[in-house]
From TrEMBL:
Protein origin, superkingdom: Eukaryota
Entry keyword Transmembrane: yes
Domain NAD-dependent epimerase/dehydratase: 119-350
Top-tier EC class: isomerase
Protein name: UDP-glucuronate 4-epimerase
Species, as recorded: Digitaria exilis
Subcellular location, record wording: Golgi apparatus, Golgi stack membrane
Zinc recorded as keyword: no
Alphabetized GO MF terms: UDP-glucuronate 4-epimerase activity
Chief location bin: Golgi
E.C. code: 5.1.3.6
Protein topology in the membrane: Multi-pass membrane protein
Location of the region described as Disordered in the Swiss-Prot/TrEMBL record: 69-90
Length: 478
């Protein structure tokens, strides 16, 4: 999107130049008139008029474009927009929905290989969304991202992911909300997406006790918004792959978790909204013939990860010498981001076409699928902390408590045999290796040259902004 702004700005400059030339010619004409004959004066006026007409015929689009660019921002309809976070670089193209916006979006959506996908990635400035967008683009698929850049965690990290997508790959991330139906309609009208990878959501288990309505807005209403736009306004309808969660297994005792285990006992509102999403997916598949695949992620971690998750907040606390609180006996099926991204692409590649509500009977029902994407080897949270201590070269101040019953489940373990069978999903990254990649990124991103002295101002500053979220620092299963 900065490219769009730069593009339009460059044209604005070009627009100025002929205008200046015109002015010079006009004043030149006056001097000429005073000095020379009546006839010559008339000829000059005529020539000037001709120039003006030529200019107007040649550049009408530039005139109208620069107008709508400057008058675009107040028309934004995102409910969560916070202009204080928006820099000049990030604004503009996203709220501007004219011809330049469409061209930029279409360019980003166009695959660079034969038979390539054209994918709308929601939540593209998020952790999983950014990685999947890179992976799709790297193999030649077209990608348009969409994200509302909400302040649930450090917005500058979301902006950094989004900038990286644009600068290294030319992938546009629109600053928009999935509840903005008019925008989605516009988007689907402008681009024939073959697939939607829907990852935008309010994540986090603990935060649901503080902001329950945020979960309903993004995970229920927003999900319906995406399904509606894909079902009604896209022709042909795209296939949809979306993120559910391992948390739907809730208070399920049976392990490892299989897709056919019961999921009707959620332990958090977050889990309940994901479970609701799976029921909503069933209805949209049934009524509108949408091809829908739900992916139940298991504690995804890695570089460019989420600061609200335990491995990330623990790393930060270890470096800055703050105490951490961890739950005795908690074990997690930690899954490395590259494995999850491969799983997402596998699900997209095998999704099968949407059939529409009418042709559904002829060509058989559209596919409705759900898969676990985990690592299949649970690790104790205490072990995760030990690995971090070793990698960071510094001991944690640990406070071990028993787990309260307010959201997190004590144990997760994925059975991924269905994903393995249907798209060759095979997680290959151990927690030791994955956390090493995470810490390498973490140290570089926050410029932590000397961890042992805990002297990084950047990190300490980042830690302060999230202090109020201490109570949710242990949320590991979102
Ligand atoms: N990371 C995990 O361990 C994990 C586990 C299970 C499920 N999931 C699910 O996977 C998906 C991606 O998770 P993540 O870890 O990348 O989280 P994330 O918070 O980093 O990414 C989600 C992105 O969606 C955006 N977003 C939220 N509400 C939006 C809205 N209404 N409109 C537009 N954008 C909106 C956010 O700004 C954010 O950038 C989510 O659906 C999450 O619930 C993640
Ligand atoms: C994993 O799931 C498959 C398919 O549902 C099942 O056949 C297999 O027994 C399960 N494995 C375990 C260890 O439960």
């Amino acid at each position: 999107m900065p490219a769009g702004v730069v593009d339009a700005a460059a044209k604005g400059v070009r627009l100025d130049r002929p205008a200046t030339i015109l002015l010079r010619r006009a004043s030149g004409a006056k001097q000429l008139a005073a000095a020379s004959s009546h006839l010559l004066f008339r000829a000059t006026i005529l020539a000037t008029l001709a120039l003006v007409v030529l200019f107007a015929v040649h550049y009408p689009s530039l005139l109208s474009r620069s107008f709508s660019l400057s008058s675009s921002s107040p028309s934004s309809s995102s409910p969560h927009r916070r202009s204080s976070h928006r820099s000049l670089l990030d604004s503009g193209a996203t709220t501007y929905r004219g011809a330049a916006w469409e061209r930029e979006v279409r360019r980003s959506a166009t695959p660079r290989r034969n038979g390539g996908l054209s994918v709308l990635v929601t939540g593209a400035a998020g952790f999983v969304g950014a990685h999947c967008s890179v992976a799709l683009h790297a193999r030649g698929d077209g990608v348009v991202g969409l994200d509302n850049f909400n302040a649930y965690y450090d917005v500058s990290l979301k902006r950094a992911r989004s900038r990286l997508l644009l600068s290294s790959r030319g992938v546009v991330v629109l600053d928009a909300d999935i509840n903005d139906g008019a925008l989605l309609e516009r988007l689907f009208a402008a681009v024939p997406f073959t697939h939607v990878l829907h990852l935008a959501a309010q994540a986090g288990v603990r935060y649901a006790m503080k902001a329950p309505q945020a979960y309903v807005a993004s995970n229920v209403a927003g999900l319906v918004g995406v399904f509606e736009a894909a079902a009604r306004h896209a022709d042909p309808q795209p296939a949809i792959v979306w993120a559910s969660s391992s948390s739907v297994y809730g208070l399920n005792g049976e392990t490892p978790f299989s897709e056919d285990h019961r999921t009707d006992r959620p332990a958090s509102l977050y889990a309940a909204t994901k479970k609701a999403g799976e029921a909503i997916a069933h209805a949209y598949n049934h009524i509108y013939g949408l091809s829908i695949t739900g992916l139940r992620f298991f504690t995804v971690y890695g570089p460019w990860g989420r600061p609200d998750m335990a491995y990330f907040s623990f790393a930060r606390a270890i470096v800055s010498g703050e105490p951490i609180t961890l739950f005795a006996d908690a074990r997690r099926d930690f899954t490395y981001i590259d494995d999850v991204a491969r799983g997402c692409l596998g699900a997209l590649d095998t999704a099968g076409k949407s059939t529409g509500s009418k042709s559904g009977k002829k060509s058989g029902p559209a596919p409705l699928r759900v898969y676990n994407l985990g690592n299949t080897s649970p690790v104790a949270v205490t072990r995760m902390v030990a690995i971090l201590e070793k990698l960071l070269g510094k001991k944690a101040h640990k406070r071990v408590v028993t787990m309260p019953s307010n959201g997190d489940v004590p144990f997760t373990h994925a059975n991924v045999s269905h994903a393995a069978r249907d798209f060759g999903y095979r997680p290959t990254t151990s927690l030791d290796v994955g956390l090493r990649h995470f810490v390498e990124w973490f140290v570089k991103y926050y410029k932590l040259d000397d961890i042992k002295s805990g002297s990084s101002n950047v990190l300490l500053a980042a830690g302060k902004t999230t202090k109020r979220k201490k109570s949710m620092a242990m949320s590991a299963a979102s």
